[in-house]
Amino acid sequence: MSDEVLTVPEVMARLKVGRSTVYDLIRSRRLKSIKIGRCRRIPAASLNSYLAEQLAEAV
After folding, report:
1. Number of neighbours of residue 56 by Cβ within 10 angstroms
2. Computed from CA positions of residues 13, 18, 22, 28, in that sequence, does the dihedral angle turn out positive or negative?
3. What is the rounded distance in angstroms from the CA atom of residue 32 to the CA atom of residue 42?
4. Rounded CA gap, 17 and 19, in Å?
5. Which 8-state DSSP code applies to residue 59?
6. Cross-strand pairs, 41
7. Based on CB atoms within 10 Å of each CB, which residue in 6, 7, 8, 29 is the most buried?
């Protein structure tokens, strides 16, 4: 498992979506995240899991 954590702008760039979409995914618990101080971080493993779920649903 990767220990890499991503910022919201990094996730935005990888998914090619806007800030509000990323926060909607976090709020709906479809994308897991952690809070460090006032900053929101998304584990890379969580993003990979989310993408795998989306691909499985698309098939």
Report:
1. 8
2. negative
3. 6
4. 7
5. -
6. 7, 34
7. 6
Does the pLDDT at position 27 exceed 60? yes
Contact of 5 with 16, CB cutoff 8 Å: no
Helix 44-58 vs helix 8-15: crossing angle, to nearest 10: 30
CA 59 to chain centre: 21
Q: H or E element: which one contains 43?
A: strand 39-43
Mean pLDDT score, 15-40: 97
> pTM of the prediction?
0.88
What is the CA angle 29-32-37, rounded to 5?
110
